[in-house]
Amino acid sequence: MPVLIAVDGFSGAGKTTLATELAAALRAHHTVSLFHLEDIYPGWDGLAEGIGYFRRHVAEPLSAGRAAVWQDWDWSLGRYADARRTEPADIIIFEGVGSSSAAVRSLLHAAVWVSAPPELRRKQALARDGDTYVPHWDRWAAQEQAWAAEDPASSCADITVDLGVDRNAGAPDPAATVQYVLQALGELALPLTPGWAGAGTDAGTVRVQRLDTWVNPELLYAALYGSSSRAVWLDSSSAPDSVVPDPEVPVGPGQSGAAHVWARSRFSIMADDGGPLGRYAEHRRETGGGVTTIVSGPVSARRPGAFFPWLDSVWGRPRGQAPADYPCGFALGWLGFLGYELKRETGGSNTPAAPGTNPESVPDAALIYAGRAVVLDHELRCVYVLTLSGNSPDGGESSADSWAALVRRTVETVAAVPPGTMPDLPPTGSSLPVPQFAVRDSRDSYLAKVRSAQTEISNGNSYEVCLTTSLTGHLAEPPGPADVLGLYRRLRRRSPAPFASLLRFGGYSLAGSSPERFLSFDAAGRMRAEPIKGTRPRGATAAEDRGLEADLVSSVKDRAENIMIVDLLRNDLSRFAVPGSVTVPRLCAVETYATVHQLVSTVDAVLLPGASRAEALAVAFPPGSMTGAPKISTMAILDRLEGAPRGAYSGVVGWFSLTGAADLSVVIRTLEIRDRSLSLGVGGAVTADSDPEAEWEEVQAKAFGVLSALGARFPE
Where are the compositionally biased (Low complexity) regions (predicted)? Predict the structure, then answer.
């Protein structure tokens, strides 16, 4: 049967040009018919009648694989005239107002809505059709508005195209826009043969240029990405040369586990969704299920369904290969976060939003696709410039080369800045006033929840419950990009970590200093998890610090917490692992960071050949160190005790490479910035022998690093 695509939108938006260019591009691999609805509208008052005629005489027969026989409307005579015939084809494109109306929507494989501002549409329509349209514009436009009020086709479209710039005044090239639409159609998994024009758009050759010049990461990020609307900085701030030590941190980083910390701190990655290959994807829960929206240039595609199958479609199989001498696992691809609430796809339930909050304000997942990026190698003290050649919607090789040249010039400029100076950067204190935080649970309330968790454990419903709460604050004004960067600079100095990160998605940002790897994959399929359970604060003196570390090492309770999560992860990884490949090379080792000591273990496994990487990730999600064990029953206990969604907190941050590799950290010690609102999730693992008072103290210790970066204190 034919694949039916509608290109809809109000008059003058640019539908005809787009549909014609789209048909031409698709003919490279398929037979294509293009039908224009303006040929059958019965006069200036005939929009509604024309839509009905279109369904009966055109859409229904073609959808069944039969030829459509219809009559052309003669606008000069005011009547239907010659009989016409449209033959079936592999792909049929319907273009015109109402081509994706409710009357035909069930017949379509894809609906494209083209939008532009009213004045621009009027200007373009009259320029196209001349004076004959002038006296009828308002009359026809009123019909379009009346139809749209009854049938909101724009909100039901699978793909939207924003052509809100005058095509005669520097708007995107129509051919480039068509390439974005083809890419969006590829996201919809249309029933077309492999190799069609929308398939495999993110395949290409990864090119790597090494610059043997070292730069200050903060300066480089500010210069390249400080003004980007959406950008990701995966920042190994615990690398020895990554930050200037904060004099307010009373005790410097210790040596326990230093080799392992530094091994995880070799690379930092910076990218945004700019350039011709850049994309942005977010997943949200909607009535009836989830929807992943993918934005490419002026085009947005909506893909209904669960998130992890979409992730599998864009990352589940290797799509590129890095040069053999390039040492980092990231070779372009997707970067961002997966929030805890995706647990509803992995055995958990939907968590209702807390009273007075807007559940739609934060996506469940947000990722940028980077077709170009910068990687800093802290060990070799060099910078890698990554670009992707091939399949570019516009600009081609010249765009990638121009950007690489810009990065080289920027690196040279930044490297010339004298050490210790930070020109044109916001101060580390930022211009944000010190916020006053409130904690969701009072001390007494939290202690009561700890005891309730212990009751669940004694009743046999769980072995370990990772209970959390949240601190919230408000700012007088939404922070700008410079404010967020200034705050993060303070955080990365105050609390450096191998998985520190700054993620900015418009008015929503995450600024974190996570020390914990959730799960990594290399290109060959080797998997590694490094759960953290067991925490002590750093001491004010060397003697006190050693005593706190010794107390952590000897704690039966903390070791039990860690070992239970190790056992959980061994089970999770074994479901997609080569039998016998699951090992634990490190158990309950101490790692010391700027503000805490931690117990860390390592679980390794090898992915079964042919197994889905996204499914292996989903089985282990959300991180067991943030739920407890057994995972599914414990998540239900947590939903009841906490009474609010965790959002990004307890989810994961990281990257998914074109090679099939990935590296994801746990979202902890991370400030969530949403317009004027600030949120910080904190918690700890509850076991049968937990001391409720000690659990409350652990919450305060874990909040210290982020709060101190803001100049704030834990609320009394």
Answer: 237-251
